[in-house]
Amino acid sequence: MGQSAKKISKLDNKELLDILNRAYGEEWLAYYQYWIGSQIISGPMRVTVQEEFMKHAKEELEHAGWLATRIIQLGGTPLLNPAEWMEKARCGYETPNDDFVLALLKQNLDSERCAIARYQQICEMCFGKDFETFDVSARILHQELDHEQDWEDFIQDLQEGADYAKKAAK
């Protein structure tokens, strides 16, 4: 971290690095959860949701990159061992035991909501105290909120389709 950044930062650097590393590991877990979900998905709208999973996986990987850069700028080291991702994560990895599209969407919706809470925490911690970390976490928070909306919309579409099919079958 540069001298000016150290002067204007009003945060405990060790605590901030710990939280950023936790978020960093969570992004890697989210990346894998989306990637593996895209590989095994089955059911209606599979192709469309599969494409969206891959898009979101790419964005989660991008978030991990932004966090790694910020961790290094702050004088820290990103978690080097994937086992630490699971150990430190609040937003953990949920094994997709059910490959049906709706189950995967609900699983990923839960993960996004956890990520939203994580980045809200970081934004609140950094607001007015560490502008660069606030900016990075706010950018990620914005995308996580978009992801939540995507999954809510897909879930609603699938449920409405199922309801319509039931009515049409009567």
From TrEMBL:
UniProt superkingdom: Bacteria
Domain Ferritin-like diiron: 10-162
GO BP terms: intracellular iron ion homeostasis
Alphabetized SUPFAM superfamilies for the sequence: Ferritin-like
Cellular component terms (Gene Ontology): cytosol
Pfam families membership: Ferritin
PROSITE patterns in alphabetical order: FERRITIN_LIKE
Iron among keywords: yes
Signal peptide: none
Name this polypeptide is given: Ferritin
Species whose genome carries this gene: uncultured Alphaproteobacteria bacterium
